[in-house]
Amino acid sequence: NLLTGKITKSLRNAVLREPDHPGTPPRFIGIGGLGQHVYTAWEDGTLEHWDLSEWSAPKLYEYPEPLDLLTRDDATITTFGFVAGKKTLVIGDDQGGVSTWFPAREEDDDGSPPLLMLSKSWEATGSPVLATVASPRSRLLTVSHADGLVRVFQASLGQLVLETEAGEPLSPVLVAPREDALIGRGRESLWTFEVDFKYPEATLASLFSPVHYEGFREEKHSWQSSSASDDFEPKLGLVPLVFGTLKATFYSLLFGAPLAFLAAIFTSEFLAARMRTGIKSTVELMASLPSVVLGFIAALVIAPFVQGVLATVLACFLTIPATLLGGAFLWQMLPGDRMVRWSGWQRFLAICATLPIGVLLAMVVGPYLIEGLFFSGDLLGWLSGEGTSTTGGWLFLLLPLSALIVAIGSAFFGFKLRDKQTEWTRQKLARFQALKFAAGFGITIVLALVLGLALNGIGVDPRGGLMDTYIQRNAMIVGFAMGFAIVPIIYTLSEDALSEVPADLREGSLGAGATQWQTAVRIVIPYAMSGLFSALMIGLGRAVGETMIVLMAAGNTAIMDWNVFNGFRTLAANIAYEMPEAVVGSAHYRTLFLAALVLFAMTFVLNTAAELARRHFRVRTNAL
Question: Which residues are CB-contacts of 384 (< 8 A; sequence separation ≥ 6)?
Fold first, then answer.
């Protein structure tokens, strides 16, 4: 009793086999886990697995084939025990072979019985195994043989940590509580060995390759350095952290890089000169926001808000670009003299006015049209696996591909009419371009819908890839927050690179009859490509090394999937999160320093590649 300290004991009886049960009695018996698993084994390797979850009615697990614990047909079991935690069986045989087994269920745990799986098997020495003893502190396992050989294994990784000859059979060989010595019992004496196992729970293979951990049916990458349980098995795989770093960088650049580049192009090539300084200074002020403030806002404000209006937020990715482009085509229909007079703050104000229009349109299209029509009014439920129709999900995922196909077709159609368009007035050409945009927008939606219906018809489900169960703090939220952190950097450097393009090149292009957009795309951007690429790489480095935003807004879960609605953990965030609690000098502590080295190596490789690319573009620029 936690309040009084009184201990009350009770005895429960469960009969697995009646005394008159036919057949020979088992040679070994072991109780695993918290007492819910009982194993009975015979010397020939036969094993029965009992479930004692209900003591009044023990249940024998029925497997498709009889369980055989021996990997060699002519061997017999000599030792039967457990690794720390009493979940993993340790079997020794008369040929010197040692193997470990543990029960594992499917990850979705559909109620099927756990499958007893072979975890590790070590080479037989030819000398019978006398005893196998597990360390009470970790996953170390000592094995003593009849010829005096003593071996120490790391049970999870299968690593042979120590091998020595005692000169006489030792049984058993125990591991000291601090794992700094071995104590063995000989025929007439005790043997002690002073040992230093270093860090057997972390090897180069376990850090960067999948490991078959206890309780799992397959090898997997995993990072889980601590637990509240004493029988915990540390998992120190760095691959999930590297994956999380790449995922955070990808989604951050996907959101921030296009926005920053387009803003820089607009500011440098299209915005009135008298407004350029003010706009640029305002954007640069965004860089002064501390990362912890952005992470705090993302985690406590943006994440709960987006979860409540997810359909509207997703619709904004469609409606805001549509209203901006639609407004641009309408602007082209203005009389020429008015367009010139309104090329300053009036045009900038008109651009800003399209943003709230796009948001208002998304508030209607998202919940009432998209969510209500394609997801039965519950988008979050559909992402969690409810509903069988996948048309809506495919519609979102296929929109970029459909837009690309329509854009290519539109360009080909415009090329066919190029000669006729030279005879049109500017007003007629503007109306034609507006109609072509409206038609292309509609065809894009219809094409994505048709492809989505086709994929839904053949039973292909997009859930499990780029979209799946929605977690409040996820990659999309991090992309928003970290995107705002890298936009000022990329924007400022890109705008500076574009502004340094000689004015003679612009004037020559405009004098030859090219439009401002053609001049920007074909003259200015190629000339400034080295600077633009450098800006992108600096923004990428900022995203790779970001700590606080990811730590607060990414959910901090070391998992590996590309689901934009799920979280992750990065190298930098993991170091910041776990370093204060890591035991100095432990394998966990040293692995965190290795993670920092891996992060440095990643940024070094990226910066080296960026410098080589920058020099390549600089050579091309100097050749102009």
Answer: 469, 470
